[in-house]
Amino acid sequence: MPVNHSVKKELPNIKILATGGTIAGSSESDTDTTGYESGALDIETLIKDVPQIKKLADISGEQIVNIGSQNMNNSILLKLAKRINTLLASKDVDGIVVTHGTDTLEETAYFLDLVVKSEKPVVVIGSMRPATAISADGPLNLYNAVKVSSIKESKNKGVLVTLNDRIGAARYITKTHTTATDTFKSPEQGYVGEIAGDKVLFYNEPARKHTTESLFDVSKFDKLPQVDIIYGYQNDNRYFYDTAVKQGAKGIIVAGAGNGLLSDAALAGARDAVKKGVVITRSSRVVSGVVTHETSDDKDKFVTSDSLNPQKARILLMLTLTKTKDPKKIQEYFNEY
């Protein structure tokens, strides 16, 4: 009697955590790509609309929230991070996909990159067109995210962002266009990989500390320090700094001109904020480049953001302030993460 040597290969277990956004958006018109309702569809609907993902993995979904990502806040970030860490600690979960609105996706991805305590893949995705639109990009982005999260090659690469067939590291990826589907780019550092047909190809590794190497642990936190962002511009003034201090800011990110420069008026406000115990971090409103640390920063007790844009610098400063208020130590964190 012939022996059947074939063994059914077990599929990886992938959990999809949904937070809303355009990928769950809906409109009465299939040509409406801007006036839709974000977060109109639940995770079960998204999974049902892409049945092909069930050939890649055993899929289960969970709705964390259902909002536009402009309404993402620290409380939800903490809830999401804690849930991911709980799931990844189980041998029954092999990877996580997070669906998210694109407007603040890079902030959530970088936050998770710093606080997830696992080498298992975590992939954050969204879409630029709602689910009801002609040529909606969400279904393929979801399919690709499940594919990326289900392979061993994606382990220990930090949190990944996958849209438009590209794979970016959370530390480097940013949104660069208001409406185009190829909006997410890594202007200086480049992508870490791509999806070509049925293949996931990796070319680079994120060089900064992340996930299991990170010192940041939010498991016992129910809130994070208040950090505000102040945008620099011609003829600006100091009252934004004074107001931020009065409203309880523990840190301020300056989206400065050029190489993170402040006007004389803003500089006076920033220096007085430091005297009141607030940590000032110079970032830049420019799309790319490193904000260099100068001797004047040491004199003023300012921190510089390296290549982090203002919104990501805010994420890192919030976490560093759970460890220390010493600007020299905080600078070390910005140099490492």
Polypeptide structure, described:
There is one protein chain. The chain has 337 residues and is of the alpha/beta class. Helix content is 27%, strand content 20%. The chain has helices spanning 43-49, 74-88, 105-115, 138-149, 239-246, 264-275, 295-300, 310-320, 327-336; strands at 13-20, 58-67, 95-99, 122-125, 160-163, 166-169, 174-175, 184-185, 193-196, 199-202, 227-231, 251-256, 279-284, 303-304. The longest helix is centred in the first third of the chain and has 15 residues, at 74-88. The N and C termini lie far apart (61 Å).
Q: What's a concise summary of this model?
A:
This protein is α/β, with parallel strands linked by helices.
Per the principal axes of the C-alpha atoms, what is the gross shape? globular
Which structural category do the helix and sheet elements fall into? Answer: alpha/beta
Largest sheet, order of strands side by side? 2-1-3-4-5-6-9-10
Distance between the terminal alpha carbons, to the nearest Å? 61 Å
Low-confidence stretches: 1-7
Radius of gyration of CA atoms, rounded to a whole number: 21 Å
Largest sheet: 8 strands, mixed
Number of helices: 9
Strand count: 14
Strand content: 15-25%
Helix content: 25-40%
Sequence of secondary-structure elements: EHEHEHEHEEEEEEEHEHEHEHH
Mean pLDDT: 95
Summarize the topology.
Elements: E1 13-20, H1 43-49, E2 58-67, H2 74-88, E3 95-99, H3 105-115, E4 122-125, H4 138-149, E5 160-163, E6 166-169, E7 174-175, E8 184-185, E9 193-196, E10 199-202, E11 227-231, H5 239-246, E12 251-256, H6 264-275, E13 279-284, H7 295-300, E14 303-304, H8 310-320, H9 327-336
Parallel strand pairs: 1-2, 1-3, 3-4, 4-5, 11-12, 12-13, 13-14
Antiparallel strand pairs: 5-6, 6-9, 7-8, 9-10
Helix pairs in contact: 3-8, 5-6
